[in-house]
Structure formats: C-alpha cells, structure tokens
C-alpha cells in the first residue's frame, strides 16, 4: 500500500466514538450537534428535477459537465461575487462535492520532487491534511487564535516557509470558527502567491450562511485587482450547505483556467463525473436564490435562540458566517464532551480533534464545535441541556 496512507490521522468522528465508548446512555432523546450535516429540507423543485430525469441514468456523464451547468455556475459566480467575463468552458469545473475535489486537487497540483509545503489553517477541515499527505506534501499548520481573529496570522509566516510553499488552503468562512477573511487579507495573499509562486485553494462552502453581510470571495478579490484570469487562484463551492443538498454531492471548482485544465485531465482518469440528472438538479439550485435566503434566515433564527441561552455562560457570540459555534469550555474539551453525552445525551465535537498540536500548543484545545443543524426546537433543547451541565460543573 502507499506508505502515505499510514500518515493519515483517524477522522474526528472515530476519535469521538472512542471517547464515548462505554458511557451509560442518558434517559433523554439524543441531540446531535457534533456533525455539520444540514438537516433542513432540500428544495422541492430540486427533488422534482431529479424525479423527472431518472431516465438519464442510462447515460455516461462527461467529466467536464454539461455546458448548461457550467454556464449556470458562471452566472451564479458573476452575480454573487460581482465578477465579469467568467469563461464557463475554461474557468469552471463541476465536481462531486467539494470534499473529493479538495482531496484530489493537491494530488493533481503537487510535485513530490519539490518537497512542497502545504499551508492550512489550524483548526481545519481534515481533508486538507490528507490531501497534502497523499499528494506528497508536508502540512504546515497556521494557528487560528482569538488574537488573530480566528483566522491565520499570515504575517507571522517565515519567508523561508513561503519560499517552499506550493499550495495554501484557506477556509472563509472558517470551519469551525465561522471567521471571515477580509477582501484586504485576500488581496494580500494573492500578492504573496505572486511573489512566492504558490496556488491558493479557497474553500468557500459556507459563504451563503452568514449573519448580516455576504463574505467576500477569492475570485472577487482577484477581480477587484483587475486579475480576471484568476491566476494562481481557485475556489471551491458546494450545494451541500447553501441548498441543503449534501446527498446530491454537487459542487464546483473555479478560477485559473490553466490549473483547471490539468485538474480536468486528472479527473478524467479518476472517473468522478457527476451523474447527468444531478447536473440538471444542480442547474436549478444554482439559478435560484429564494431558497438560499430562507435557509439563511432559519440558521440566524437558531443562532439568536441558542445564544439567548448559552451566550452568557459560555461567553460566546454569533460568528460572522457558517452554522457552527466555537466556544471555550469551562473544563477541558474532552471532559466537557464526554460528560455532556453521558449526562444530557447531547453530542458536540472536542476542538482538539479538529486541530494539531504544534510547538506544544493546540488551538482547538478547550473549545468545542457545536453545529446548529438540527431543527429549531432541538437546538433550543440542546442549548438548555448544555446550560444545565455548565451549571453543575
């Protein structure tokens, strides 16, 4: 087997299962706030497109996707991020959800012979690390602390590190922090990419779940700099969170056409084309904003209700975007999560499971990730049970 497989860490939910092993079962219904799987109903009109097109299961899909889907995506990017002249044929590539695309991207991009560094936020979506390992790169973890606004402090990165960097993963809005990189920060990163010749891969899957102001995107920052070729920049977007369609496995990569040409070649051999009826359903989803606004309103209602209960005892406020809370815990994060499961039958994810310890510090330690994905009444009950545990500690 590929020896790099041995470098992969257990996934956070494997660790969570081990943490809960042998616990007594509380006499209360389970409330899961640990996994970021959207629970709101998927749009009826998308489901109808799927039902109307099952006959297309008899067709092999093209890896590059239908021209109509690429055009729908280009149109959405143009409207959402104030772009102009997006080349749907060369600057857009549909993918089967951004998870598989993020993982595959590093393998297509990196040259092992370069001994490349892959920079990523810490805490982070675990796929970034696995992608670096399997692509022959070495991860460099950039701590996201309160002092740096819960995003990496890029000014603290040594120039020697930038010189060896071939790929930078950013996540804005952040998972799990919900923190957003500003347009000025994105532009500064683009300038660094030019100076040190690396690629920026921007995971923007939570961009449509925000509180008050739509977060800027990497391609938007490029356009404001007059870089309509989006050189060295690619973005990853998904219908999973935006449209409550995690099971559709539909997303896209967009940006630098030269990079996407190589990635398309890789994916053609990889055999990961999106089914045609999924593509048609995706067209419908990308072309509609009403369901997205309604979805966003549901999350904002849950944040308000939950923070009315937990804001004071956990000293936590709503993040700029996303559907996670990332509070500090009154005891260590594993103890907090274990007692919450045992005593209240509520699951949250210890922050250390989403982070790596570097120089003796783990930025996720003594924090937990709470995903407000359940229905409003369940989120409220979960918050009440969490408060009850806090009051007993």
From TrEMBL:
Keyword rRNA processing: no
Statement: the UniProt record of this protein carries the keyword Transferase: yes
Gene3D superfamilies to which the protein is assigned, alphabetical: Aspartate Aminotransferase, domain 1, Type I PLP-dependent aspartate aminotransferase-like (Major domain)
SUPFAM superfamilies referenced in this protein's UniProt entry, alphabetically: PLP-dependent transferases (SSF53383)
UniProt cofactor(s): pyridoxal 5'-phosphate
MF-aspect GO terms: succinyldiaminopimelate transaminase activity
InterPro entries the UniProt entry points to: Aminotransferase_I/II_large (IPR004839), DapC_beta/gammaproteobac (IPR019878), LL-DAP_aminotransferase (IPR050881), PyrdxlP-dep_Trfase (IPR015424), PyrdxlP-dep_Trfase_major (IPR015421), PyrdxlP-dep_Trfase_small (IPR015422)
Pfam families: Aminotran_1_2
EC number: 2.6.1.17
Root EC class: transferase
Sorted UniProt keywords: Aminotransferase, Transferase
The Aminotransferase class I/classII large domain, residue ranges: 31-372
Name this protein carries in UniProt: Succinyldiaminopimelate transaminase
Organism expressing this protein natively: Alloalcanivorax gelatiniphagus
């Amino acid at each position: 087997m590929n020896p790099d497989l041995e470098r992969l860490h257990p996934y956070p939910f494997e660790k969570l299962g081990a943490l809960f092993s042998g616990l007594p079962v509380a006499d209360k219904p389970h409330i899961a706030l640990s996994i970021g799987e959207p629970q709101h109903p998927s749009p009826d009109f998308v489901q109808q497109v799927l039902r109307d097109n099952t006959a297309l299961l008899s067709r092999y899909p093209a890896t590059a996707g239908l021209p109509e889907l690429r055009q729908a995506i280009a149109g959405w990017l143009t409207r959402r991020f104030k772009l102009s002249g997006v080349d749907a044929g060369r600057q857009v590539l549909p993918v089967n959800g951004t998870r598989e695309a993020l993982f595959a991207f590093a393998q297509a991009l990196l040259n092992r012979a370069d001994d490349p560094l892959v920079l990523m936020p810490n805490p982070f979506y675990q796929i970034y690390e696995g992608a670096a390992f399997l692509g022959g790169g070495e991860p460099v973890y950039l701590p996201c602390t309160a002092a740096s606004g819960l995003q990496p402090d890029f000014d603290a990165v040594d120039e020697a590190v930038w010189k060896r960097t071939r790929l930078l993963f950013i996540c804005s809005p952040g998972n799990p922090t919900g923190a957003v990189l500003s347009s000025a920060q994105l532009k500064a990163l683009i300038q660094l990419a030019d100076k040190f010749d690396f690629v920026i891969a921007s995971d923007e899957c939570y961009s449509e779940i925000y509180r008050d102001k739509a977060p800027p995107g990497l391609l938007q920052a490029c356009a404001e700099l007059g870089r309509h070729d989006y050189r060295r920049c690619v973005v990853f977007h998904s219908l999973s969170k935006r449209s409550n369609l995690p099971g559709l496995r539909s997303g896209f990569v967009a940006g630098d056409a030269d990079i996407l040409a190589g990635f398309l070649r890789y994916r053609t051999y990889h055999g990961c084309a999106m089914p045609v009826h999924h593509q048609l359903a995706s067209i419908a989803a990308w072309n509609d904003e009403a369901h997205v606004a309604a979805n966003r309103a549901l999350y904002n209602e849950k944040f308000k209700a939950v923070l009315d209960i937990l804001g004071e005892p956990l000293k936590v406020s709503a993040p700029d975007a996303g559907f996670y809370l990332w509070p500090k815990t009154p005891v260590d994060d594993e103890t907090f999560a274990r007692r919450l499961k045992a005593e209240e039958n509520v699951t949250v994810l210890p922050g250390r499971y989403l982070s790596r310890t570097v120089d003796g510090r783990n930025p996720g330690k003594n924090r937990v990730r709470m995903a407000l994905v359940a229905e409003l009444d369940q989120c409220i009950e979960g918050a009440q049970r969490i408060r009850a545990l806090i009051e007993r500690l």
